[in-house]
Amino acid sequence: MLKIGIVGCGKIADSHASQIHRIKGTEIVAVCDREPLMARQLCDRFAVKQLFSDLTELLDRAKPDVVHITTPPQSHFEAAKLCLEAGCHVYVEKPFTVDEQEARELIALANERSLKLTVGHDNQFRRAARQMRELVRAGFLGGDPVHMESYFCYELGPGDYAGVLLSDKQHWVRQLPGQLLQNTISHGIARIAEFLKTESPQVIAHGFVSPLLRSMGESEIIDELRVIICEEECTTAYFTLSSQMRPSLHQFRIYGPKNGLIVDQDQETLIKLSGLRLKSYLEQFVSPAEIGRQYFANTWMNVRTFLHRDFHAKAGMKHLIDTFYRSIQEDTPVPIPYREIILTARIMEAIFTQLAQGSQRQVGRQQGEEVPLTCLAGSHRQQ
């Protein structure tokens, strides 16, 4: 029986607790939050026996095997470090840490203590995403990826979270180096990082505050981001985050020298794209029919999954947690290689550095200072 602790009892902790309850051979033995009422409500709803307001006390008294960290990102490093030093395996919600250096230190500590770490990139473990990964490994693309496109849209409307963020100038999201972007883009960047070969790809980023947010008096929160990622004479990728484009996409496209694949997270579909072209008008008749056949097959698969009671918004999280736990029990590789965690952090850090530099240049222009005639967010290469 794996004993599980949860640190941070906000909204995302509910998802973790729900998915842990779906996995046999596990028990949530304790939860922790600085606000006792938050810890109490999670205990009551998920029948957890122990609650704490101090992480050190939880580790000393409950002695969990695994700790899930679902606190704001600024606290991820210190909390994960405490857990690793106490001999616990650790699942950290995204983003893993606030920068690459912290990610490297945690991974080094885990390796030193023979413990395991993972990060909450659960979208990569939804059914369609897992099928895509198996097809890539089986050689469906016909070689290494040539190009990728990752879309992660974000609806920044009048909802609870968005409303609080826009109205509260001290909100913890605003204190992150990448602000809103840092709390949202890791899912989309991680999809790209999984298939990159080099350790230091070139990153070119451009971000801005949408006209809608500006009309609401917001001038700091960047909600539109476009990124080009490329390896020298090899794979290229585009990443798009938008709060304004419609339809609001959560999609990943990957193209090889022979074929391509499209994963649509919202529709939970995987579409195979053939690189072969049919002669004459067959391309206009046969190809649309084949795409339609695939969509029907995806629909039927979703129906079957629903009937088996495994079709839910956080199915990817359940699979990731289950795979992580099995890697602990069976001493097998972790579900997300540490290289990918570090590379995701590196790309994100490059993006935020460029955006900060671009913002400084923009301020210089407004103040009449002489500035170089370069792109607002030019290229950056990590050494």
* Average pLDDT number: 90
Number of helices: 13
Helix content: 40-55%
Largest sheet: 8 strands, mixed
Structural class of the helices, strands and pairings? alpha/beta
From the alpha carbons, calculate the radius of gyration and give it in angstroms. Answer: 22 Å
Strand content: 15-25%
Distance between the termini: 44 Å
Rough shape? globular
Written as H for each helix and E for each strand, in order along the chain, the element string is: EHEHEHEHEHEHEHHHEHEEEEEHHHE
Widest sheet: strand order?
Answer: 13-12-11-7-10-9-8-14
Quantity of strands, as a count: 14
Runs with pLDDT <50, length 5+?
Answer: 371-383
Q: What order do the helices and strands come in, and which of them pair?
A:
Layout: E1 2-7, H1 11-21, E2 26-32, H2 36-46, E3 50-52, H3 55-61, E4 66-69, H4 76-85, E5 89-92, H5 100-112, E6 117-119, H6 127-137, E7 147-153, H7 160-167, H8 179-184, H9 186-193, E8 202-208, H10 211-215, E9 224-230, E10 236-242, E11 250-255, E12 260-264, E13 269-273, H11 282-307, H12 315-330, H13 338-366, E14 379-381
Parallel strand pairs: 1-2, 1-4, 2-3, 4-5, 5-6, 7-10
Antiparallel strand pairs: 7-11, 8-9, 8-14, 9-10, 11-12, 12-13
